[in-house]
């Protein structure tokens, strides 16, 4: 792999969770991702907040991004597999000028999504 960057967008979209619970999922995951080597992680600012609305600090609900050097992408995938196995999420992966969007609602779905994303990044 090269020194390219791989960008992950993780969207907690479980329909059984309300907005506050989705944000709690992000709040739990943020400090854990920051422990990974060479990862830049952040909440995603809402590009179009409603007029006059104070929405959770101006961030999109239940969404975070992480950027990692392509050489460390495998470590990031392993981390996601360990932490998000039972969560309903959408995972968007961007690397090598390409984008992939996959969904998972259980550990088997997540495993398949991660394998697909790894193959996508390696290609």
List keywords for this structure.
123 residues; alpha+beta; Alpha-Beta Plaits; 5-stranded antiparallel beta sheet; 3 helices; 36% helix
Structure at a glance:
Helix content is 36%, strand content 33%. With 123 residues, the chain is α+β, with helices and mostly antiparallel strands.
Mean pLDDT: 86
Q: Helix/strand/pairing class, anyone?
A: alpha+beta
CATH architectural type: 2-Layer Sandwich
What are the low-pLDDT stretches, counting only 5+ consecutive residues below 50? none
Structural features, described:
There is one protein chain. This protein is of the alpha+beta class and 123 residues long. It has a single domain (5-122), classed as Alpha-Beta Plaits (2-Layer Sandwich). 36% of the residues lie in helices and 33% in strands. It contains three helices and five strands. It has helices spanning 19-34, 73-84, 107-122, and strands at 5-12, 39-45, 59-69, 89-95, 98-104. Strands 2-3-1-4-5 form a five-stranded antiparallel β-sheet. Helix 2 (73-84) runs antiparallel to helix 3. The chain is globular. It starts with a strand and ends with a helix.
Please outline the helices and strands.
Elements lengths: L4 E8 L6 H16 L4 E7 L13 E11 L3 H12 L4 E7 L2 E7 L2 H16 L1
């Amino acid at each position: 792999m090269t020194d390219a960057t791989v960008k992950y967008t993780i969207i907690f979209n479980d329909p059984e969770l309300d907005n506050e619970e989705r944000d709690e999922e992000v709040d739990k995951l943020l400090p854990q991702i920051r422990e990974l080597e060479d990862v830049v992680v952040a909440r995603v600012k809402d590009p179009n907040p409603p007029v006059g609305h104070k929405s959770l600090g101006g961030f999109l609900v239940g969404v975070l991004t992480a950027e990692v050097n392509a050489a460390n992408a495998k470590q990031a995938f392993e981390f996601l597999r360990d932490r998000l196995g039972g969560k309903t999420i959408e995972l968007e992966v961007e690397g090598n000028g390409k984008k992939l969007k996959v969904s998972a609602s259980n550990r088997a779905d997540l495993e398949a999504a991660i394998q697909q994303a790894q193959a996508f990044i390696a290609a």
